[in-house]
């Protein structure tokens, strides 16, 4: 039963006085007693001038408010921090846990019976779910939705797979200054999140598949009227959740729904970041993402969604092809259909809504997949005892089994300084290695794993090389790129021991990544390793450094994982 304004009354003397004070202050904003005497629905306001992806958040808040009021609830929007990929230094990942803490504590502190989480840009939805899961009240996600596509000289463009591709052409001298300026105005033509299958789209699809948002909510384009109607419906659903007293995220985040999310992640050719965020979300309810299980799912679940960067299309096309419900229908044999949803039913209800769109080619049938196996594989080997990830769906097939000479960069800065040096000794067969770019090392595990092809090779037409690191990579990128090497080099992982000239063997079929150097030599090198840089002494940097977990545990802070003791 909704507690409304009475929730958590403890602070000022007796409970009656605390409620009296709350009423006195909220009435200062013009509310009547009648308005206050109903389920209160919090709505996170993550609009920010620094977050163009959330540019439609104000309209969505209005739509959610309308839905809440039509169902007899009282909507209360409140701000939390907002994180945009391009405007968060040193990385958005560095701030994800801060946003999760902000969301958790504000949801807990303020009186609300349910919360609507409006977010979308890469780190925001995982942060919000992590926070809401720990706060423990009913929550429903409203993604801001993907941008519509851009056009340039007859070509369809999307942020930010084409950002990288076209910038690569600019670096190789094929696109001049004037044209690249024009292109910068066409890559992201509307508000909303990147419209390829990057991290934002990946998370929105996984969240819908976990029943944390309404059917279709992942793919409706941000500027469409339908997006607002979905917001309104979410507001209504939140009131129902408040009245029923659930489900809270913990009830939705089950072993079955996590498996469903992993299945969808493989089938959409999703962002490798999805795996890190899923591990962090699972950790908040005392569950684990098993990398072996994820790999096993990838061996039997094909890539069905034909979106960039693994395929050809964009999120609006996924929506017009039937969206996530249609995809779930195609994935039916691989899913746990009893998984619960925000609507109080099960995932089976989402599938029932699925619409057949004649002639569409974006969501492939199981009988004719885009790729026979899933988008990602988990590697093991003496270079990555805690695992590493490769998105082989977006890699060059001929490089998936490759042995080459290591060319090592000691940090992101070292790489930036030297990668384009005409004197750098490097050939297309070499393996580029980046270290000290993990959760603690960089800090914040930047998306530096997409190491640029050295300029002199790019100019010769080299488009891909094997690149390995303890960093992450944007979901919008492509290439033969091994990421999330765990443990990272900054905590003494074997990556710290690699030297330029060593041989490294990648074998994706066998799921191996090995440094071909004998153990005695590695032990000798281990004794010589110096920690990369002094630990920060104060502030958030210290908290982050001291408590961030490794990639396989989602890079959450160690004290935030797990459940509260009752
Ligand atoms: Fe916000 Fe890509 S920058 S989703
Ligand atoms: Mg991204």
UniProtKB/TrEMBL annotation:
Keywords: Iron, Iron-sulfur, Lyase, Metal-binding. InterPro entries: Dihydro-acid_dehy_C, DiOHA_6PGluconate_deHydtase_CS, ILV_EDD_C, ILV_EDD_N, IlvD/EDD_N, Sugar_Degrad_Dehydratases. This is IlvD/Edd family dehydratase. Belongs to the IlvD/Edd family. GO terms for molecular function: lyase activity. It comes from Muricoccus vinaceus. Pfam families: ILV_EDD_C, ILVD_EDD_N. The keyword Iron applies. Residues 362-555 form the Dihydroxy-acid/6-phosphogluconate dehydratase C-terminal domain.
């Amino acid at each position: 039963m909704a507690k409304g304004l009475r929730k958590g009354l403890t602070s000022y003397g007796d409970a009656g006085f605390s409620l009296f004070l709350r009423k006195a202050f909220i009435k200062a904003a013009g509310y009547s007693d009648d308005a206050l005497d109903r389920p209160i629905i919090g709505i996170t306001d993550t609009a920010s001038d620094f977050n163009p992806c959330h540019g439609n958040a104000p309209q969505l808040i209005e739509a959610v408010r309308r839905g809440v009021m039509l169902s007899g609830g009282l909507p209360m929007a409140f701000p939390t921090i907002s994180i945009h990929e391009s405007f968060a230094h040193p990385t958005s990942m560095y701030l994800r846990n801060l946003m999760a803490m902000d969301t958790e504590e504000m949801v807990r502190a303020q009186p609300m019976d349910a919360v609507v989480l409006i977010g979308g840009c890469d780190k925001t939805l995982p942060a919000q779910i992590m926070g809401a899961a720990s706060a423990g009240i009913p929550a429903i996600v409203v993604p801001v939705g993907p941008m519509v596509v851009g056009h340039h000289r007859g070509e369809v463009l999307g942020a930010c797979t084409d950002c990288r591709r076209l910038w690569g052409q600019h670096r190789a001298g094929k696109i001049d200054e004037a044209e690249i300026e024009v292109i910068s105005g066409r890559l992201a033509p509307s508000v909303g999140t990147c419209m390829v299958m990057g991290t934002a789209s990946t998370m929105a699809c996984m969240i819908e598949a976990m029943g944390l948002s309404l059917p279709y909510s992942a793919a409706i384009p941000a500027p469409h009227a339908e997006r607002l109607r979905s917001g309104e419906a979410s507001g209504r659903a939140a009131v129902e959740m408040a009245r029923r007293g659930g489900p809270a995220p913990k009830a939705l985040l089950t072993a079955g729904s996590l498996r469903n999310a992993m299945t969808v992640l493989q089938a959409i050719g999703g962002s490798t970041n999805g795996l890190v965020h899923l591990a962090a979300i699972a950790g908040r309810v005392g569950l684990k993402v098993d990398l072996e299980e994820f790999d096993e799912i990838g061996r039997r679940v094909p890539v069905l969604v034909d979106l960039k960067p693994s395929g050809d299309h964009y999120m609006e096309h996924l929506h017009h092809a039937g969206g996530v419900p249609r995809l779930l229908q195609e994935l039916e044999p691989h899913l746990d259909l009893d998984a619960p949803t925000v609507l109080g039913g099960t995932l089976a209800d989402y599938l029932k809504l699925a619409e057949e769109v004649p002639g569409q080619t974006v969501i492939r049938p199981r009988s004719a997949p885009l790729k026979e196996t899933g988008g990602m594989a988990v590697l093991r080997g003496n270079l990555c005892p805690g695992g590493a990830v490769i998105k082989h769906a977006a890699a060059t097939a001929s490089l998936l089994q490759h042995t080459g000479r290591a060319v090592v960069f000691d940090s992101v800065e070292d790489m930036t300084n030297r990668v384009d040096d005409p004197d750098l000794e490097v050939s297309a067969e070499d393996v580029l290695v980046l270290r000290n770019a993990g959760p603690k090392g960089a800090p914040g595990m930047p998306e530096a794993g997409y190491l640029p092809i050295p300029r002199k090779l790019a100019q010769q037409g080299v488009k891909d090389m094997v690149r390995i690191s303890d960093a992450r990579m944007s979901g919008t990128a492509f290439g033969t790129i091994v990421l999330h090497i765990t443990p990272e080099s900054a905590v003494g992982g074997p990556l710290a021991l690699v030297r330029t000239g060593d041989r490294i063997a990648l074998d994706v079929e066998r799921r191996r990544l090995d440094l071909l150097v004998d153990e005695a030599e590695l032990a000798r090198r281990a004794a010589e390793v110096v920690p990369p840089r002094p630990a920060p002494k104060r502030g958030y940097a210290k908290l982050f450094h001291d408590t961030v977990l490794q990639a396989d545990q989602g890079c959450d802070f160690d004290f935030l994982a797990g459940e509260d003791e009752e």
